[in-house]
Amino acid sequence: MIRWLVFLILTAALAVVGASVARAPGQVTFEWQGYHVETTAGVVILALIGLVIVLFVLDRLLVIIGQARRKLSGGGRERRQRRGYEALSRGLVAVAAGDASTAGKQARRAASLLDNRPLTMLLSAQAAQLQGDDRAAADFFGTLRTMEGTQFLGLRGLLNQAMKREDWGQALSLAEEAHRLNPKSEWVVSTLFDLQKQLGRWRDAEATFDEAVKLKLIPEGHIARERAEIVAGQSEMGDGSERLRLAAKAFKADPSYTPAAVRYVELLLTEGDFGRAASTVERAWEHDPEPELAELYWRARRCDDAGKKLDAAKRLAKRNPENLESRIVLAAAALEARAWSEARAALAPAAGADAVPRVCRLMAALEEGEHGDLAAARTWLMRAAGDEAPAAPPTPPQAANDAQAAEAEATQGATAEAPQPAPAR
């Protein structure tokens, strides 16, 4: 409005100037294309002023038309984007609901309306995954990996795909790249740590473990176990005295971690250090009794006969007397030494209705070895197999014989005291 007001004022001013010029003396003559024109200077000036006014009006009209066209195209673009975002929202909802067909349809619609924006690419990749088209999903994630600002998103998708198909080498490579892009990501650090352990990259895993501890990704109660696992893995990769030193370090980090204890004891036995090997097993037995430790203990104590094995078993069981594994080890050694009473005493607390199969098998061996009772042994073996669970333990053969003898004596006594019938005449 102001522009037009200024234009009218300028036009009036030019008209006044033109009128003044028209009264001014002067003659203008020119020839063009065979025409001879003669006029006054005022007329020429007025013609020029008119031409300027016409050009100005045409310019304003062109500007107005251009603005109108941009508004019309902008409105269309806004409607197009609105429809694209609606398709994107519906597609993401379909992905969350597991509706592969709807997700694929909306992904294609969003891609055609939004010109391959990152969210559209992500929706297309997820829709392809739902439809089982891993190759297409990999293509979309690969594109995201090359786009500015979406590299990490693309890497994560490719990493998940590699882990899904158990391509651990590729997964580790992608996790390392993702870690370089975002070293503070909790998901990346945890995934990288797990992959390094799985592939035996123990040195790298140790560095990642320190990062995970700083980020508080590992619970306080699991730190010792994780550290022991890493150092034990390094021991397996080492050689000479280094592997023994690392095994000792792993066991010290967490004596309850059986693989570290087993590794350390095996190396000590190889070195001929039987005393330290035996004491290491005893210490580990206090934390977590395992059959594998018992087998190493027999070697460490050099149990070359049943009597020595039983003595060693008693010593080991004292380290954790209430543990079921201690009772089983002691009972097995007692059976081998034919110490029936000691075997029964060790098994009795564990031979109830909820006895585990190993206890049932030991009870079967005890019944057969001590009493020769094959029926009772068979019953225990059936319990071990889960075929039968009697409410009460079988009666020992000696007790059954005593009961039968008592019943026979009572019958004989009753017969002697009863009146005899008179002889027939």
TrEMBL record:
<dbReference type="Pfam" id="PF14559">
    <property type="entry name" value="TPR_19"/>
</dbReference>
<dbReference type="InterPro" id="IPR011990">
    <property type="entry name" value="TPR-like_helical_dom_sf"/>
</dbReference>
<dbReference type="GO" id="GO:0016020">
    <property type="term" value="C:membrane"/>
</dbReference>
<dbReference type="InterPro" id="IPR010817">
    <property type="entry name" value="HemY_N"/>
</dbReference>
<feature type="compositionally biased region" description="Low complexity">
    <location>
        <begin position="398"/>
        <end position="419"/>
    </location>
</feature>
<dbReference type="Pfam" id="PF07219">
    <property type="entry name" value="HemY_N"/>
</dbReference>
<feature type="transmembrane region" description="Helical">
    <location>
        <begin position="39"/>
        <end position="63"/>
    </location>
</feature>
<protein>
    <recommendedName>
        <fullName>HemY N-terminal domain-containing protein</fullName>
    </recommendedName>
</protein>
<keyword id="KW-1133">Transmembrane helix</keyword>
<keyword id="KW-0812">Transmembrane</keyword>
<keyword id="KW-0472">Membrane</keyword>
<feature type="region of interest" description="Disordered">
    <location>
        <begin position="385"/>
        <end position="425"/>
    </location>
</feature>
<feature type="domain" description="HemY N-terminal">
    <location>
        <begin position="26"/>
        <end position="132"/>
    </location>
</feature>
